[in-house]
């Protein structure tokens, strides 16, 4: 990882993603979570204050170590124990049927093999477990889709692997999960190219 990816990008994303408009959507997405939760793509830990009281333990996973001092402070302030693992989501280092919930917020856009990761999510969920997701991706508006495709190669460089044009709902279903709830909206104050949101939940088929 270069200087930009290691030092500049994490600080930029932490600054952007901790705004109030993102916090409101995090809180809504995480509201159903309880029990033992796995969060993939933990990033800088901005979800931590928004987990509800029913969460008794959180395991977090990310291949990168972003802003380690800030992340350590946020983990120390959590109301529940937090276990940290550094690995890619395509091969989760956990036993089958371990978690009550898996959380993914603005993460599926970046994972290189997203179908493999979602298949792993299915594997580690308990039979009655649930995936909670809040992601950006392919627009519903056909006027914007060509621009997302054109700008995607640039976004992958600027966003350290982030894709603009992944159809999040279809990918979840292709991995063998069943959508139980899906909301589509454009996040306030964001360009449509990057602001097309998918929020919802999925269970095992």
What does this structure look like?
The protein is globular and about 45 Å long. β2, α3 and β3 form a beta-alpha-beta unit. The protein starts with a helix and ends with a strand. The chain has a 7-stranded mixed β-sheet with strand order 3-2-1-4-5-7-6, sandwiched between helices. The chain has 7 helices and 7 strands. About 35% of the residues are buried. The protein has one domain: Rossmann fold (3-Layer(aba) Sandwich), CATH 3.40.50.150. The chain has about 200 residues and is α/β, with parallel strands linked by helices.
Low-confidence stretches: none
Distance between the termini: 38 Å
| Binned strand content | 25-35%
Query: Nearest-angstrom radius of gyration?
Result: 16 Å
| The first-level CATH class name | Alpha Beta
Strand order of the largest sheet: 3-2-1-4-5-7-6
Give the structural class. Answer: alpha/beta
**Which overall shape is indicated by the principal axes computed on the Cα atoms?**
globular
What is the CATH superfamily classification? Vaccinia Virus protein VP39
Largest sheet entry: 7 strands, mixed
Q: How many separate helices?
A: 7
Write down how many β-strands occur, each being a DSSP E stretch of 2 or more residues. Answer: 7
Helix content: 25-40%
- Reading the helices and strands in chain order gives HHEEHEEHEHHEHE
Task: Briefly note the CATH topology name.
Answer: Rossmann fold
